[in-house]
Amino acid sequence: MAIYLARQGNTKLTGILVLPPKPKKEYQKLPYPEKPMLEAADKIMEESRLLCAQNGILFEKKISFGLAGPAIVKFAKSLNYDIIVIGSRGMSGLKELFLGSVSHYIVHKSPIPVMIIK
């Protein structure tokens, strides 16, 4: 859907992937797997870039660490994006209550229009 919208608006896409924050030292018993996580994130972003290229869309990537919802809203707001397009995993209400939902957070906290794709 994001590619479709970018084609209609003759614009580029920016993909953001937010990795979990490092635990505080007092809670970190095992080494934090930063390098493997960054490599996996880079692979996902490269697949996205190729898919965009196949459809004639420029793709920029952003990989960061933190809480996904706040990081995405802050990033999109700071660069004054027109819309946030995000997927929904379709969690049930009970699971969402206990686990939280990134898309739910973004819909309620973003001053920018949000499109959730199911």
Structure explained in plain terms:
This protein is α/β, with parallel strands linked by helices. It has 2 domains: 1-66, no CATH class; 68-118, 3-Layer(aba) Sandwich (Rossmann fold). Helix content is 47%, strand content 19%. The chain has helices at 2-9, 34-54, 68-78, 93-99, 102-109, and strands spanning 13-19, 59-65, 84-87, 114-117. The strands form 2 sheets. The chain has a two-stranded parallel sheet. A two-stranded parallel sheet has the order 3-4. Helix 3 (68-78) runs parallel beside helix 5. The radius of gyration is 16 Å and the shape is globular. 11% of the residues are buried. The model has no long low-confidence stretch (mean pLDDT 88).
Which structural category fits the helices and strands?
alpha/beta
Q: Indicate the overall shape.
A: globular
Fraction of residues in β-strands: 15-25%
State Rg. 16 Å
Please tell me the total number of domains.
2
What percent of the residues sit in helical stretches (DSSP H or I)? Answer: 40-55%
Order of helices and strands: HEHEHEHHE
The tally of strands reads 4
The biggest sheet amounts to: 2 strands, parallel
Total helical segments: 5
Low-confidence stretches: none
